[in-house]
Amino acid sequence: MEVFIMGSSKICIYGFLLACLGCTNSGGERSFSAKTSKAVCAPESVSQEGYKKAGSYGQDEAILPNGRRLTPVGTRIETGGVFPLGFRVNRAETRAYVVHNGDDVNGLVVLDLEQGKRIQSVSIKSPFRAVALSPDEKTLYVGSGKHGKLYFFDVLEDGRVQQDGELFLGGYLADIEVSPSGDFVYVVANTNSNVYVVDSATRQVVKTFKVGTYPYDMVLSKDGQKLFVSNLNSSTVQVLDTSDGTVLASIKVGKNPSALALSKDEKRLFVACSDSDVLSVIDTQTYEETKRVELSDHPLLLKHGSVNGVTVSPDGALIFVSQANFNRIDVLDAETFERKGAIPTGWYPTDLFAGNQRLYAVSSKGMGSKGPTDLKRFGSFLQVIPYPSDETLETWTNTVEENNNRTLRYFDETCDPSQIPVLSGKDSPIKHVVLIVRENKTYDMDLGDLEGTDGDPNMVLWGEEYTPNLHKLARQFVNMDNFYSNAEASVQGHMWTTQAHCNDYTEKTFWDQWQLPGYEAASVPESGTIFSHLFAHGVSFRNYGEFPSFGPGMFEEFMDFFDNKYPFWTMEVPDVDKASEIIREINLGIFPQFVYAILPNDHTYGSRAGKPTPRSLVMDNDLATGMLVEAISKSPYWPETAIFIIEDDPQGTGDHVEAHRS
Fold this sequence. Notes:
With 662 residues, this protein is an alpha+beta fold. Helices cover 14% and strands 31% of the residues. It is globular, with a radius of gyration of 26 Å.
C-alpha cells in the first residue's frame, strides 16, 4: 500500500512506519520487499483541510509550507524588494522608507502611504535594517551593511530621495539613530562592535564607541544623553553616555535581544528577546531587568516564536510585540503585561512602528514565494493596520489562533492518538530511527516523473534514469508528495533538520552574512538541538557528517557520538564511500537509537570546471542512499528501524506546486 501524506513539513512528519524484511539485491537498483502492519490512522481519516497544498488562495489568504494559514489584516503595500528588515515613517504618516536585506536592486524603497504604492527604488547593497530620518525630515540616512558605507539622501518635496554623498565607516552596518537635535548620527556595526558618531554637518566621524558582541538595535533617550544598544551574541543591553561613550551599564536579558523600545515616560526599556520568546523589562534608573514577560504559548514553553520586534502606542498604554514564526503581533497592557490579543500579519514580521494614526509592520516573507521557481522572492509588504477596538481585537485574536493551529485539524475523530505507543506511554516498536539528509532538491526535480503522484514531468531534472533507488523506495514504502521544507537556503535547512526551528538571527543574516549555526553564540537556539536533547535524555545517537549545527562545544561534549572516520560536509568524498563507512560500523554492531547521516553530493558543483559532473554526483548520491537502506534491511535491526530520507532545503529549479515542496 502506498500512502501519500498531506500537509507535512520539517516541523512534523505524519506517516506510517513500515516494518520491512528480506531485501534482495538486483543489479544497480536495490530491490525491497515489505510487510506492513495495520495503520492507526487510515487515509480516510484525513480531513480535506489536510489535503490542501501550500500556496496562495486568492489575494488575501495563503497556506505556508509549515501548514499555517496567513490572513493579514489592514492594508498591504508591496515593497517590491526581498526580505525587508527595517523602515521609518515620516511624522505625517504619508511616506515610508523601507530597507531590504535580500535585494541589492531594491535595497531602499519609498512608499506612498496615501496611495498605497511604491514610488521609488534605490539600489543599495544589503542595508540590513539601517535607516533613519533626521528630525527635520530633510535628510535620510541609509547604511550599506557589507560595504560599510553610510549614504546621505536629500528628501525631496514629494518624499522621494536623492543621494547627496556617502561616508565609509567599516564593519557591517546594522542600525542608525539620529540625535534629537539632528547634530549627530549614530551608526552601529555588528561585526566590529563599533558605534560611529558622525557629525551631520561635516559628515565625518567624530567619536567611536565600543559595545558588546554583535549589536543589533539602538534607541536614544529623548534628551539624547543615553544610547541603549542590544547585543545578540552576549545577550545583553548596554547603556552608553553619548558624551564620551562610557558604558553606564551592561544588563543581562533574555537570549538574543533584538528590538528595543522605551516606554512613554522613559522609565522602562522593553527588549524583544527572539530566542527566549520573552519581553525583558529594564528599569532605566537602576539599570536592572525587573521582569521577563513570557510570550510562548506552548504548554512546555518551547521557544520557537521568534519574538523580534517591539513598539509602544503613542499614549503609552499598549506594547506591540511581533512573533515572527507565528505571523502575529501580540498586544500587551503596558502596566500589567497582560496579553489583550493578537493581530494577524504576513509571513515573518520583523519590524514595527506605532504611529499616531496607525500601526505599521513589515512582513519579510509577505504571502510566501511568488511562484514555482521563486523560492527566495516573496511578495514582501508593509502592513498598515488601524488600531482595533476591543471587539475587533477579539476577532483578530481568534483568527490568529485558527491560522496557527490549522494543522491540528488534519485528522478527524477516527484517528485515535491513544493507539500510538509513544503518545500513550507504551513502548514503541521502533527502536532505531535513521535520518538521511541530502541536499537541495524539490519534489519535482527528483520525483516529478513518479506515476500516481502530484508531480510535473516537465520540471524533472533528475528522474528515474538518475535516481532509480529513490524511485524504488518511493514506490514500495512511503512517499510524501505534499511535504515541504521551511528553508530557503542550506544554513536554514540544517537548523530545521537538527532543531525543528530556525532562529531569528539566522533568518535575518543568511542572505549575506553566512553564519554557521553552532559557532556564533547567537546561532545556538535556547531550545537546543536534537543532539543535546538526546544526550540529556539518555538516548544514544551517532552523527555522521553534520557540522553546521554541531558546534565546537558539541565536538568536546559528544566526542563518543560521532565517527572520526566519517568526513564532515564535503562533496570531495564520494557518497558511496561515506555510506560504506556507516555500513562498516553497522556491521561492527554500532547502531544507536538515532542515526543522523549527511549524504550531500546531490547538491553538485553545477558546471564548475575540474569537478565531477552533476549527473555523476546525483547518481553517486542515489547509489549511496540505496546501499545504506539495503545494509540496514539485511541487519538484525531492520524490523525495529524507521528510516526518513529528506533534502535539507528545496533550492534548485523549482516545483509546480510551491517552491518549498521537497
